[in-house]
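Quick start: what a row looks like.
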Amino acid sequence: MPFPVYDIASETANGRVNLSDLHDEIVAAGPYTPVFEGVTRSGGDVTVHFDATPPVPEQVTVTTTVGLHQGDQAVEIVSIPLVTQAFNITSPGFTFIAGVQLRPEILVNSLADSFFQIRAVTNVLGTGARLRLVEEDPELISDDVVLGARNLDDTVGALITRIVNADDNPPRGRRREYRLEGRLSTATSAVIRSVVLRLMENVP
């Protein structure tokens, strides 16, 4: 059953919607008492579907998630699996999980219009756990840059986070390495079941 219908122009952060991203954001904001069935768009409206009407606090969660949604019209340039089997984060400080070497400047039209997106499946109990993506220069000319991070407090299932490239984007012709790091901090346990790093590019 539909709950409820939102006006895209006035009830999202920038008047645009990306159904795939919004779906993942709503899942990440859960869990929910009724079964979440997905999101659909009709004209200027987007509808969130559950198999029953959610309790009022969960309705607030959904409305807040829709209100924060940045519906950039982005296309996926490359998708790279970083974690393909369960990884148990045990260190209180940031520790290496996975890495990849990439030259985004040869893949996208404009670095200024590109960003990284992490899709992860997690099972975290407690607060303090965190994922972050770090860009490093293998030629050691520039310092490492933390492109972005995501708290994993009490998360179960899929989560998605947009990680914007730093202002000092790598010069063309230069290769960069990217590493995914995680910390347990004060959380009781943190298991990362899968992580995919996606290079995205906004389109008009």
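That is the whole record. The longest helix spans residues 56-68. The radius of gyration is 18 Å.
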